[in-house]
Design brief:
Number of strands: 0
Helix content: 55-70%
Largest sheet: none
Number of helices: 1
Distance between the termini: 94 Å
Radius of gyration: 36 Å
Shape: rod-shaped
């Protein structure tokens, strides 16, 4: 229950606890900092995952194109005659 008695500052001391207020402010700042760092880390992880998947897709597309180009070149340069040429 809250003490509702009024003490004028000239006639006594208040119940203000500077160290408790400082500790609570420090805890609040630490909690806020850790929450922000966690959000930044998860955002960074999400962006890196997107970057890696995009790079993997691009590499797969390049590999398919290289394979197709190589196969087309091999077919075009096959100089065997007649039925031996067919695969």
């Amino acid at each position: 229950m809250k003490d509702r008695s009024f003490k004028h500052r000239l006639f006594g001391s208040d119940n203000f606890d500077k160290s408790a207020l400082t500790r609570q402010a420090h805890r609040d700042v630490q909690h806020d900092h850790s929450r922000r760092m966690s959000q930044l880390a998860s955002g960074e992880t999400r962006e890196l995952d997107t970057l890696v998947s995009t790079a993997e897709q691009r590499d797969a597309t390049k590999q398919e194109l290289r394979d197709k180009t190589r196969d087309d070149f091999q077919r075009a340069t096959d100089r065997r005659a007649g039925p031996a040429r067919r695969r």
